[in-house]
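For consistency, the fold was encoded as tokens, which produced the following:
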Amino acid sequence: MTDTMDQAAQPSSVSVGDLPADVIMRVNHLVKEFPIRKGVFFKKQVGAVKAVTDISFEVKSGETLGLVGESGCGKSTTARSVMRLLEPTSGDVWFRSKTRNKVVNVATAGKEELRGVREDIQIVFQDPYASLNPRMTVASIIAEPLVVHGKGDKQERLDKVKSLLKVVGLQPEHANRYPHEFSGGQRQRIGIARALALNPSFVVLDEPVSALDVSIQAQVLNLLDDLQSEFGLTYLFIAHDLSVVRHISDRVAVMYLGRMVEMADRDALYDRPMHPYTHALLSAVPIPDPKVEATRERILLEGDIPSPINPPSGCRFHTRCPIAQMGKCDVDEPQLLELEPGHWVACHFPEIKQVI
């Protein structure tokens, strides 16, 4: 892991041959900024929203990487940038495409090459009410990726739709119904079926259960687990609910104000976090034991998240950090370093803290 992450930190060393066989995606120094313009025709740029700043990480084939953080920290922007639904400002996204049978830099791929990669990377959106076209039948919704990529004839596509409905726990006769006839959990299953239509190898799950009732969330998470085992899928799972992330993820990455602050295996991060922001996030997760809940430490962060238009100097978390030291944390930006095998932290004063 150390060797590959060291390579990921060096843009000049990245090439097709550098991507290890067990890695499906390497994100290298990803930056995404949204320009702020003003004037009569909004031609003059007066600033930028720094949504994602210098993010580097790897996703291994067959694993689930959880991406967590407060709302507005850049999780969804990161996901959409690695898929090229948003154009990255800079950086590289190396992806092992089974359709193209080679490693492709998604960030710089041409139109035709990107079209092929689209078959391998799909997304399940957060809101199943907004992500499905209410004027289309379920069959048309699920078959749309097949039509766009010219896969099969009409009957073959219909057969594929019915097969996918069975796979996600719905009935084939549901194909002729419209989205409004389904519950939220069923609509999300339809969205999952659509994402699987092209047999992708990599699926971005952008808070796929946050809009669902708690009673339905476990069903959808179990379905995602089963599908991953059955089809050999790799997930990038985005969420703000740390309990959900712990249930489904193999590794977890924590973001704050557009930067990666900690990344480790699931158990290591939840049991022995090192970054003070991760400590605070985990202290807010309720424990279903009244005695333990009453005695454990609760970390309350003061103030609001700074604006991504003008982020703080040095460590971006220093304005809310309970252990920040002025003269260091407000001046020098901490680098993401491997302090333990597989455990990466961006903090000048990391502390290992046991979490119950």
Q: What stands out?
A: The first helix runs from residue 2 to 8. The first strand starts at residue 23 and ends at 38. The chain has a mean pLDDT of 89.
